[in-house]
Predict the 3D structure of the following.
Amino acid sequence: MNNAVVIVLVIALVVAIGVAVWLYMQRRRTETLRSDFGPEYDRALHDHRDQHEAEHELEQRRERVERLHIQPLPRAERDRFAERWQSVQAQFVDDPNGALRDADALVGQVMQTRGYPVGDFEQRAADVSVNHPRVVEHYRAAHAIAVRNDRDGVEGIETEDLRQAMVHFRALFEDLLEVETPDTTTRNSHMETRR
């Protein structure tokens, strides 16, 4: 074989290996993001319609939240919030509209206490999706009902919708009050290793 042919074959082999490694890394990145973000991955893909852009946005969310220094709640704080939630739920019987507003405010207070910024709703939902991807859709659904309730008033929304919003808020609320268990400790240390 002539030297030029050998050089061309070696270059082709190196390029093929490089492409295979790049494809493997891309697939691994996708699998990791899909696993970490769950349904939120599909939502980002739907919103962007381009896999690269959607994955880039999810990685940016993760980086932003890592800079926020989100902290678990101390036991006393968790207990205090849990008691307030019980009061809000009890209020629902006599004042469903007020209970919904209070539930929304209480979730915001828990988020703020944990270290999440509580400005724009879409940014809050994006931030929450990093550590609570399985319940962020509950947050969006509850918020949509709360906004509709504020816009339409007492006459415009059914009590069942208000009850459903409370269920959605409760799902996020309980997830935000998370207690460090072996499962969450493993998840948090897994996220730390990836930094």
Q: What stands out?
A: The two ends are 48 Å apart (CA to CA). The first helix runs from residue 3 to 37. Residues 75-194 form one domain.
